[in-house]
Structures are given as structure tokens and as C-alpha cells.
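Changelog note: in this version the structure field was regenerated for every chain. One regenerated record is shown below for reference.
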Amino acid sequence: MRRITRIATVGIASAALALSATACGGKKSSDASSSPSESGQKSAAIAYDIGGRGDQSFNDAAYAGLKKAETDLKIKGAEAEPTDGEGEADKVQRLTELARKGNNPVIGVGFAYAPAIKKVAPKFPNTTFGIIDDTSVTGPNVANMVFNEEQGSYLAGVAAAKVSKTGTVGFIGGVEVPLIKKFEAGFAQGVKDTNPNAKVLTTYLTQPPNFDGFAKPDLGKAAAQGQLDAGGADVIYAAAGLAGSGAIEAASTKGKWAIGVDSDQYNQAGLAKYKDSILTSVTKDVSDSVFNLIKSVEEGKPTTGEIRYGLDKDGVGLADSNPKYKEMTDVIAAVEKAKADIIAKKITVKTAP
């Protein structure tokens, strides 16, 4: 699979994480040569969010969907990386280049692509544009792939409250934007509904327009250390993309629990050193959302409009890969009950704190 652009590796909290990002295809030299579609083979493209491929989380989940499409649908895949400190014009240029090269669909990984897709999609009416985590931009050739993150985060809150010995848990958000506040809201509600006396510490790494909080593990590590040391937390849940790796590292170093996000981070090779401390992960089926959109285009019936993934469709959930978690029968029972109650609408999960 080729990349359209590359950037230098963003700051990594430790050498192990730096090596993992490179091993997973992290930021190398630029590659802007001919697209796969020029060979006559059908192609699809994804443009990554901040942090790029190798984040062990959100972007890697999107990549898995593209890779599956390559294998199962026999298409070519193209990828495009973000650049540090880029603006809207950079995203417009990236999406335009991908569409001009004949990729279909072209998928923007993350809400930050909304303004660019709004500009580019009308210029390529025969190309389907997908955007993950946004419904603000619409059009006859735009697919909005969105998730009930608050529902999965509620389950994480239940698990955190059940395993916490101090009664204090931490939430770390990458950037304080409405999307990440959905994670916070669900998590805090799940904790409080399980243990009304529990305390939830909340830290946001950066404020928009600074989106470094999704890209720098050192920020996540420092925030987690503060919650663990000064705050007395013994479970840390980070919704912070690549920066969340630092939070996981900090929790592992202290012998405390971490909860992953977006991908099943227990199974991420770049986090193998810390996996025993990853209790569970709030998963979003970004992989299937990418694959399903590509498949719809290949079948000649491109899906457009809002495509929502919630607990009822297993579009979000809680991973159980860690054997230690599987042994916690009381925790699993509480999580399963909460899941059933949410699906049955006995519990309404908040989308804002």
C-alpha cells in the first residue's frame, strides 16, 4: 500500500513507542507518485487524522478497514498523512489530490476534515466522500460515519468503578471538543451510576485550535502521572489518540489500570510492553465503517448520509482481550447488564458532561 504524503514522526513519550509507530508505518519520507488507480485497478483512499498511522488507536483502526478492503475486495488502497500545524487549505489540497487520482471513496478520518470535504465533495460529484465522527457536512455524495462513543464510555465507567480500590478514577481527553466530551460524559455517568461516591478526575491536554493533545504521548503521560500521584486515581481512561499511549505507559509504570480507546489496545503491538495494565478498551468499529463504505461503492450502491454505529449494532463496545479482565466475573456481569439496559433504553447516556 502506498502513501500520498508523509511527515516526520510526532513526539513519542518513549523509545518503545517511537519504534512501534515506525514499525506500524509511522511517518517516513514523502511519496507522491502515481496512484493505484492509474493502473486501471479500482482504488480507495483514507486521509488520516492528527497523529497519523501508527497511533495504536483511531487512525490504525481506519487503516485496518482499508487493508481489509484491499484483501477482500481486491482493490488498491491509498493513504495520506497530516502535517504538523496544517490548516484547512492543506486538507483541501490533500482530498482534492486523492479524488483527482481516481480514488473512490475518499475518506477523511476525523471531524477536522469537515470543512475540507464541504469544499471538495461538490467538485467531484461522482466520488463518494466519507467522514468519520462528523455530521455537520452533508451532500448527495457524502457519508457521515458516526458512533455512540458515550455508550461505550459508559461501560468503561462501570468497569472502572468496579475495579477501583481508591474510589478515584481519571479521564484524560486529548482536546476539549464536543466529540471528546461525549467520551467524558459517558464515562463519568457510568462511574457515578455504579458508585455514587466515586470521584472522577478530568484533564484535557490542549484546547482548540491546538490539537497537539491528540498527537503527543508526553502530554498524556504527564497528565496521567498527575492524576495517579496527586489525585490518587488508580484507573485512567484516555480518549486522546496517540497521546493516550503516554497515559497507558504512566498507568503501567505505577501498577495501575488503564482503559484504552477506539482500538482494542491490549492487542496493539506498539503497546505490548504495557498490555497487562490495559484492563479493557472502548472500541469503535471504525474498521468496519471504512470497509463497509468502500464495499458499497464497489458494489455500485454507495452509502451516503448518516451511518450510525452504537451498542445495538456492536458499533461500540468494551474489549475483553485481557485474560485478567475475563476473570472478573462480577465486573463483566455489571458491564453486560449496563449494556442490555442501554440497548433497551432503560439507561439514557448523556452526550455532554
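Spot check on this record: The longest helix spans residues 178-194. Confidence is low (pLDDT under 50) at residues 1-37.
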